[in-house]
Structures are given as structure tokens and as C-alpha cells.
Amino acid sequence: MARIIIISLLLAAAVADDQRLRGAQTAGSFSMAHRSGGRHASFGITPNYDDGALITCEDNEGKCIGPDGVIEEGELKCNTVSAPFLVAAPDNDGLKCGPKDGPNNRTFKFTNTTDDGIYFNVDVCKAACAEDPDCVAMSLGFGSPKDKGPDYYWCVGCSEELDEAEVQTVAAYAKAPYFCGGEAVEAGTPCDYTFCPGSPVIIDDPGKNNTKCGKPKNLLRSFKISGNCPGGDPQCVTDEEIADGEEKCKAACLNDETCVAVSQGVHDSTAYCIGCQVPLWFDFEGATAYKKVQTTDL
After folding, report:
1. If we measure between CA atoms, which residue out of 76, 147, 86, 135 comes closest to residue 106?
2. More confident of the two residues 38 and 150
3. How would you list the strands of the sheet with 64-65, edge to edge?
4. CB 5 within 8 A of CB 298
């Protein structure tokens, strides 16, 4: 039972990514322009129709609706995939898709430009790989060992598993398999199951304690809230109450669709709360880590 719950949580989290990525695809081209107002629009699940009543997720959050609207509970029954989506692959952190020059199985590469503002849009990268049938994995990072400098951000899609060491990679992703009725199926297979995502929550992530989302002004951050913002940091918002309040800091990440993890602590007598678009990675003594997950009753 514990194993089923864990699998359900992971798959539910991936569903949330799927919903968000499909929203990003619907929104238009893969421009790396700074997201409007620093936030993405919210996209809900699209109800399915059959010969009978409308199948709806209202009051069925975290449940699987089978054929004819029957609620399936106790087993992982659902098809959670109506479009490809990516899941984090931490075992591949520190890898990328082949060398820069020569054969490397790359399907795309995005880099930031001066028009991107103060954020690098990770969701656009995920969407690019998700909708490309040849892309099965993606790496994301910043900086360059040559002449690009620390403000050079990139994401690279790959038609094979990541295979080249790259110290600049901070997050790796893989395309999730397709499921229907609890069984793996081929892409494009019709399925009569509908999964209703549960509500996201923020939980402790003790394995990531003493880490944060890069150095100040890192473009992979979702936000920074501080008791005293230093000059020259355009991401920083001064709010002592949020920065120093555990629940309010977690709520800031919960309410930001780009935020998947958040760290909180006090540095040089100043409280901080820093949200991140990718899993936390940068060593920072004293930081307490939290992450966003999806709840489900499966």
C-alpha cells in the first residue's frame, strides 16, 4: 500500500506538470521572453465526454475516473497522460546530451537573451521537449567553461539518454512513460480513464536542507523575499513577515506556479525566502528546504 501511495504521488506530480506544460504549449511560441507579471496563467483539466454524463473532476480531486464515470480507488488505474510530460531525473544531474561539436543526439537548445529579463523560463524548455516526439530527455543549467560567462542559461533536449558529463547542469529531466488502466501503453493509445489532480502542498525536504536556488540574481529563481533587500537585486522584494514566517514563505511558493521548491533561513541577521523553478542545488549553510508535491487519495 505504501508503495502504491508513493507511486501515486509521483505520478500525480507529473500530471500537474503535464497540465502546466500543455498550458505553456497552448500559450504560443517558445519565446524565452519574461513571463507576464512573473507568473503563468492557470490551466485546469479538460473534461472528457462519452455517451452518458459529463465526466468531471469536481469533488473528485485526487481520484481516478474510469469508463462510464466509475470512481476507481485503491489501485493505480488511471491514464495520467493526454500529452507527453517530463519528470525530474536527479540521477542524471551533472549530465548533458553529447558534446557541443559533432554527433550529439540533440533535438534543440535554448539560451537566454537580454530580452528575457530577470527569469529564465524553465516551463518553456519542458514544453519544447514534451511536444517533440524525438526528445526523451533534457538537461538545464547555466554558465559556460569558455567565454559565455555565469549569466549564460541554457536547456538542451536529447533523443537519447543523457550521456556527457557537464558540471554546469543543475537539473535533468526525462519524458515519462504512458499509462492506461495501470498498465504501460504506447504513445497515442486511446484511454477511457481520467485522472483528477489533487491540490499541491508544500512539504519538508530534509535531504535538501542547507541548499538554495543559486546565488543572488540567478535566473532559475521564482522569487526572493527578504527582510532587507540589497541594492542591485531586481528579483528581491522586501517583506519581513513573509521572509521570516515559515507558513507564509511556503504559501509564497504554493501560490507561484513556477515554484517547485523553496528555501528559508536567516543570513547575516536578515531573513530570506527564495523560491526556485528547479530542485534546490546550491550549497548554503543554514537554509531549510521545502518542496511542492501533489496530494492524491489513490
Report:
1. 135
2. 150
3. 71-72, 64-65, 194-195
4. yes
CA nearest neighbour of 14 among 197, 250, 163: 197
Asked whether residue 4 carries a pLDDT value surpassing 60, the answer given is: no
The three-state secondary structure class of 172 is strand
Q: What is the DSSP letter of 270?
A: E
Q: Which among 215, 264, 221, 213 is positioned nearest to 243, based on CA atoms?
A: 264
Q: Are strands 95-96 and 164-165 parallel, antiparallel or unpaired?
A: antiparallel
Report the pLDDT averaged over residues 116-143.
Answer: 89
Say yes or no to pLDDT of 15 above 70: no
pLDDT at residue 245, as a whole number = 94
Which of 80 and 199 is assigned the larger pLDDT? Answer: 199
Distance of alpha carbon 105 from alpha carbon 113, whole angstroms: 24
Beta bridge partners of 291: 203, 261
CB 255 within 8 Å of CB 183: no
Q: Single out the residue of 192, 201, 195, 212 nearest to residue 254, CA to CA.
A: 201
Residues forming beta bridges with residue 118, ordered by sequence position: none
d(CA 63, CA 197): 7
Q: What is the pLDDT of residue 33?
A: 32
Strand, coil or helix: what is 173? strand
Q: What is the mean pLDDT of residues 194-199?
A: 74
Return the H-helix or E-strand segment holding 283.
strand 282-283
* Lookup: cell for 64: 481516478
CA distances from 166 to 63, 65, 134, 194, 274 (A): 40, 43, 22, 39, 25
pLDDT at 193: 76
User: Does residue 92 register a pLDDT over 70?
Assistant: yes
